[in-house]
Amino acid sequence: MEKLITKYRQILNLVLVTLIIGGCSSNPNLPSATIQPSVTKDISSYKYLIGPGDVLNIFVWRNPEVSGSFVVRPDGMITTSLVEDIPVSGKTPTELARSIEQTLSTYLRDPIVTVTVNDFNGPFSEQIRVIGEAAEPQALSYTQNMTLLDVMIQVGGLTEFADGNDAVLVRVENGQQKQYNIYLEDLIKNGDISANADLLPGDIIVIPETWF
């Protein structure tokens, strides 16, 4: 009797799983993700923006009790001894220093604040992302004057299955996603430096797999 009950339970579980899978297959697809545009429009205008995971050293002159090191939370805020929620993501260190001075002026007289950054991450909109047939696909913090060659060195180059000359670079310009052809095979394996290109924060590099 006990074996029969166990068997019926197994059959029931199988039926439930089948119904769940069948129901899921009729669900609509999620809407496509919106790629947030970078605030950097050209190389000369680049300024580092603070992002989640960054470690901030905040020094308040003559007020060591409110100075310290703070990690930016996933929601883009930090908590200090005087103020629990200070929005910091997307600001330059100088902009944040002026903002904190304004916030602290409620508690302190004429606060002078300096902000420095450690463990750079930056917002997702400012990172370079490499996907597909790179040896080490990853998101990289943008560095001023970073080029395509610099990024490919950091991701370890191409895999043996990569179709490097059919790779594309996706960039948001004026609110629209644009794709540019890039020739990674020529750049990396053939040493064609003319295939190198300047990158901007937020660029996405997609490297397809070869068909043969």
UniProtKB/TrEMBL annotation:
Give the location in the cell.
Answer: Cell outer membrane
Q: Which InterPro entries match?
A: PEP-CTERM_polysacc_export, Poly_export, Poly_export_N, SLBB_dom
Q: What is the predominant subcellular site recorded for this chain?
A: membrane
Task: Return any one Pfam family short name.
Answer: SLBB_2
Membrane topology, record value: Multi-pass membrane protein
The segment(s) forming the Polysaccharide export protein N-terminal domain are 45-117
The alphabetized UniProt keywords are:
Cell outer membrane, Ion transport, Lipoprotein, Membrane, Palmitate, Polysaccharide transport, Porin, Signal, Sugar transport, Transmembrane, Transmembrane beta strand, Transport
Q: Please indicate if the UniProt record lists Signal as a keyword.
A: yes
Which residue numbers delimit the SLBB domain?
128-207
Q: Which PROSITE patterns match?
A: PROKAR_LIPOPROTEIN
Q: Which domain of life is it from?
A: Bacteria
Family statement drawn from the similarity comment of this UniProt entry:
Belongs to the BexD/CtrA/VexA family.
Protein name per Swiss-Prot or TrEMBL: Sugar ABC transporter substrate-binding protein
Originating species: Thalassotalea eurytherma
